[in-house]
Amino acid sequence: MSHQATPPRSLAEALRVRDDASLAALLRARPDLITPVPTDLTQLATRAGTRASVVRALERLDRFALQTAEALAVAADPASYKELLGLMAGDEADPVVTAALPRALGTLRTQALVWGGDDRLRLVRTARELLAPSPQHPSPTGLGPTVQEATAGMSPGRIQEIVTAAGLTSTHDAVSAVTALTKLFTNRKRMGALLAGAPAEAREVLARLVWGPPFGQVTADPAAHLRWLLDRGLLLPTAPGTVVLPREVALHLRGGRAHRATEPLPPAVEAAATHRPQVVDGTAAGQAYTALATVEELLKDWHEGGPAVLRAGGLSVRDLKRTAVALDVSEPIAAFWVELAYAAGLLAPDGEADERYAATPAHDEWLEQPAAQRWARLAEAWLTATRTSGLVGGRDMKERTLSALGPGLDRSAAPEVRHRVLTLLAGLPEGASPSAESVLARLSWERPLRGAQREDDLRARLARWTLSEAELLGVTGRGALSAQGRALLGAPAPRPAPEEPVGPGDKLPVHHHPAPAVEPLSPTEQATASAAAARILAPLLPEPLDHVLLQADLTAVAPGPLRRPLAETLGVLADVESKGGATVYRFTPGSVRRALDSGRSASDLHAFLAEHSRTPVPQPLTYLIDDVARRHGHLRVGAASAYVRCDDDAMLNEIMADKRAAGLRLRRLAPTVLASQADPAALLEGLRAMGFAPAAESAEGDVLIARAHAHRTPPRTPPQPVPDGPPVPDATLLSAAIRAIRAGDLASTTPRKPTTATPATGGDLPRTSPAETLATMQAAVLTGETLWIGYVNAEGAATQRVIAPIRVEGGFVTAYDHTADEVRTYPLHRVTGVAELAEDQL
């Protein structure tokens, strides 16, 4: 609370008496005020009162602080703390509101939305204009204009009639009559007596208007009960056929409250269920492993080049559906994984003429990292990304569909909401999962919506997406924050869980403890936190296996994750039949032929299976490999347009006799050679569809080995988050900014000694001749005096500075610059003039 001897007359004066810590708190809460750094405190105060800055500050107030500002907007200007307390706590002086009000008022003062002492509280003018009631913009309080405002256009005779009907003595002028009426309406006892004689219908009308909106419609000949109210000024006309309930009357009927429901305390985040921390961490680790496998599978699917980039950017709906089928997930979840890989820098457009999406070189580096580190990179990218996959499929402002990887998906509030949701989870006992409704209620209290924002509650949607995405990614397990999630957030140690056991469906007691103050981390701090999360997760992830279990039904079961070389080879030799805790692979003639096409021989495949199987290699699988290998390459296809050659002319006779070969347009050139007008690739596919196992050959007659061609983009950087306004300044920047502002304020407010200097055109900067400037500088070096100078920099910008000259030589002055808080050298020809400071200010 302020106890100044001389009350400040402006916001600038109020800021001038603040200490450095208070100014730092203001600039930290409203970083837009130092972008760029103001020249002095007057400019800082002016900037703090601009509409854009005030709107931004109001949007970041919690509900009770905003309600306090709304109450000040309908109070007198200036208002006393007692009046504000009455508006917030009501006639009954709600003790909870009374206890919470100093904190809310302190928040408004810290953010320079309110200034002045407790006896003269002033809401900054722009905030009052935004929050005060008007016919065009009703107040959030539901209050209407005051008696004085509502009677501004009323005839003096009519005002005297109202005063008389209300039981007051008529006055000699309208001003005193309005004052008398206001005193009546603000006197609880006298108003009670006046309303006691009101008709029942009149009291019903007042009850309908009391909580707003305060305006109503009347006919030219109102009913008796409405006439009773109009005659006594309890309703006042504002326009033909329109009446309003005066603010003072509404406050009496409300018991002095400005708001119908005052919310001094944040709603508690309720723990809907609790689980053992080991279960939470194990479940989250399983989800983390699945997340890694899914991203790897996505990029493997796009290994040779992914879908084409739309002309407007992004994936087509068809390609997103195909990706969802390949990953065996729904389309919204497929969009999440695609966007996550993009945010982590693992995929990007290749930039070619026929532009397609493909893995980046960073993807290959990522694959070589340990699994926990790979997860930490994904989790960090998710936590800080502004791209929001939940918007995919929606519409932008121009009614265009928003596509995955396309433009228009950035929402600058996303990182802050994700961080806040996880912080709320960190405030619960270890292993407790919250109800989504209580999380949304808490977020709504911390950042209430105003006006049109309620129609599109983006923060609520972001919060719901955060809860589901955190579970998909393994940041949470069964809805509760995991140990690795807590480390990723940089949160403190968890609170202990309740001593009494709680069932999975039971609700924990409601906790009113505030969530821990976990601030967003700097990039360096986040990298450290991510490394800590990886160390916690590493022992929880399953160890990759070097074996599978071969079964007689031509399947192989991988009871866990496989080591990369084994998984890659098995992925070529067999088809994935099912996924889950154990992956089932099925061997087919086509999959075995695929392995032979990649350059492996039958003996290689037998040795591979024998080495990596914990069970004997089943005989059917051995027969399958040998049978396919025996026929593989027996036919050779080359370029004629295409030809088929085979040492077994009987097989060529069989092909020629087959009706399915008609589309290949084959012609026999020799007993062992067939020619085709189809290209080699189509000929290969056609013969394979007929049940043969041909091999492609080169122009030299060698078998061509078919290997997947890895397509990579040029080096790409991950997409940069779109910031939500200026970043919060760090301690170093704050300290430098405050020094500069105070020094500039000293230069602009310190009295100067009388001088013969020629006044500047604008009267702001000193003007002296070069000779006088040089003489004054040299004298200041000998006496150690501090000077006020005008200076024009190389860009032509004029500034004023306070300096203490140290040395003058060679056309330069070296001095300690109080404005910059450092020693600097200035060319004398750029100094417009110099003046000495008054002795009592040195």
UniProtKB/TrEMBL annotation:
<dbReference type="Pfam" id="PF13280">
    <property type="entry name" value="WYL"/>
</dbReference>
<keyword id="KW-0378">Hydrolase</keyword>
<keyword id="KW-0067">ATP-binding</keyword>
<dbReference type="InterPro" id="IPR032830">
    <property type="entry name" value="XPB/Ssl2_N"/>
</dbReference>
<dbReference type="GO" id="GO:0004386">
    <property type="term" value="F:helicase activity"/>
</dbReference>
<keyword id="KW-0547">Nucleotide-binding</keyword>
<feature type="region of interest" description="Disordered">
    <location>
        <begin position="745"/>
        <end position="769"/>
    </location>
</feature>
<protein>
    <submittedName>
        <fullName>Helicase-associated domain-containing protein</fullName>
    </submittedName>
</protein>
<feature type="compositionally biased region" description="Low complexity">
    <location>
        <begin position="747"/>
        <end position="761"/>
    </location>
</feature>
<keyword id="KW-0347">Helicase</keyword>
<feature type="region of interest" description="Disordered">
    <location>
        <begin position="490"/>
        <end position="515"/>
    </location>
</feature>
<feature type="domain" description="Helicase XPB/Ssl2 N-terminal">
    <location>
        <begin position="548"/>
        <end position="670"/>
    </location>
</feature>
<feature type="domain" description="WYL">
    <location>
        <begin position="772"/>
        <end position="834"/>
    </location>
</feature>
<dbReference type="InterPro" id="IPR026881">
    <property type="entry name" value="WYL_dom"/>
</dbReference>
<dbReference type="Pfam" id="PF13625">
    <property type="entry name" value="Helicase_C_3"/>
</dbReference>
